[in-house]
């Protein structure tokens, strides 16, 4: 268990890769936020009589895709660190701590993979549903994602967006969305090898063994009461009933022959 195996090597590589990808995603999204400043650019062709400005940070921006990217980046970062810590325990901790953290790693990696896949589908669906009105005055009636505004809306008025923002904002926003696909794949690989390593460490065998033994009583919140066999009372012994004593009057009519049998303090004897 303390040697390098295929599972531990795969977990270490996938954890380090996921750590780098999640850090890159957070850095890209932080850089994209710099493009949305409280400034505006004059609409080309507008005259002195009617100034028209294009806001760089409009109020009709859908911020949920950005929140999703930050959430996926932060969760993937934590999961990758958790996987590296779990590998370290294989060399410096007991089997009990390895199994405890192994169950947590399995739950975290599988949950993160499922959430990342769902959020990636949401991002691509949101970008595909974006629609740009032909007239600039009707832009306020629509809701744009940050990527759509940087890559579709602003370039329709200012073709050179790098001069507007000072850096390739559209490329960075688009790179963050496609980076989500890579994070999905790496998260799935990490989850798969984590489950295999946990099975090798006996994490699931412990749960199966506890379940087969009955385990704690979940409904009552305490262990099940064991049945104790109490001692049974002894059976009633029926003693033979003695013959009834003779009445007082009958003692006077005892024949002399029968009265020759005597008893004393020392025993029973007869008169010869």
Explain this structure.
The protein starts with 5 loop residues before the first helix and ends with a strand. It has one domain (6-216). The longest helix has 34 residues, at 95-128. It is mainly α and 272 residues long. Helices cover 56% and strands 8% of the residues. A two-stranded antiparallel sheet has the order 1-2. Mean pLDDT is 81; it is low at 214-221. The chain crosses the membrane at residues 6-28, 67-89, 101-124, 178-196. Keywords: Membrane, Transmembrane, Transmembrane helix. Residues 215-258 are annotated as: Disordered.
Please give a handful of descriptors for the protein shown.
272 residues; mainly alpha; 8 helices; 8 strands
Brief account:
Keywords: Membrane, Transmembrane, Transmembrane helix. With 272 residues, this protein is mainly alpha-helical. The chain has helices at 6-33, 64-92, 95-128, 146-153, 161-165, 169-201, 203-212, 248-251; strands at residues 40-42, 53-55, 61-62, 144-145, 216-217, 222-223, 261-264, 267-270.
* Overall number of domains: 1
Proportion in β-strands: 5-15%
The profile of the biggest β sheet is: 2 strands, antiparallel
User: What is the number of strand segments?
Assistant: 8
- Approximately how much helix is present in the residues? 55-70%
**Average pLDDT across residues?**
81
Q: Describe the global form.
A: elongated
- Integer-rounded radius of gyration: 44 Å
Order of helices and strands: HEEEHHEHHHHEEHEE
Unreliable stretches covering 5 or more consecutive residues: 214-221
Structural class: mainly alpha
> What spatial order of strands do you see in the largest sheet?
1-2
Count of separate DSSP helical elements = 8
């Amino acid at each position: 268990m303390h040697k390098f195996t295929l599972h531990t090597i795969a977990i270490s590589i996938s954890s380090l890769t996921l750590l780098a990808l999640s850090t890159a995603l957070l850095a890209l999204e932080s850089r994209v936020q710099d493009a949305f400043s409280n400034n505006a650019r004059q609409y080309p062709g507008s005259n002195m009589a009617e100034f028209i400005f294009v806001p760089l940070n409009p109020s009709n921006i859908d911020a949920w895709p950005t929140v999703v990217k930050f959430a996926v980046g932060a969760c993937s970062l934590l999961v990758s660190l958790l996987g590296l810590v779990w590998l370290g325990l294989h060399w410096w901790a007991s089997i009990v701590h390895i199994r405890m953290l192994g169950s947590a790693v399995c739950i975290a990696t599988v949950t993160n993979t499922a959430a990342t896949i769902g959020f990636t589908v949401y991002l691509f669906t949101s970008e595909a549903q974006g629609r740009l009105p032909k007239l600039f005055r009707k832009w306020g009636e629509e809701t744009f994602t940050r990527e759509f505004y940087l890559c579709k809306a602003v370039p329709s008025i200012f073709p050179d967006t790098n001069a507007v923002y000072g850096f390739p904002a559209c490329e960075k926003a688009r790179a963050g969305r496609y980076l989500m696909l890579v994070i999905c794949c790496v998260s799935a690989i990490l989850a798969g090898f984590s489950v295999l390593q946990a099975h090798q460490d006996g994490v699931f065998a412990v749960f199966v063994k506890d379940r087969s033994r009955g385990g704690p009583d979940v409904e009552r919140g305490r262990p099940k009461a064991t049945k104790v066999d109490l001692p049974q009372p002894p059976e009633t012994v029926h003693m033979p009933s003695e013959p009834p004593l003779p009445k007082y009057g009958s003692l006077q009519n005892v024949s002399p022959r029968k009265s020759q049998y005597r008893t004393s303090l020392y025993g029973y004897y007869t008169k010869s």
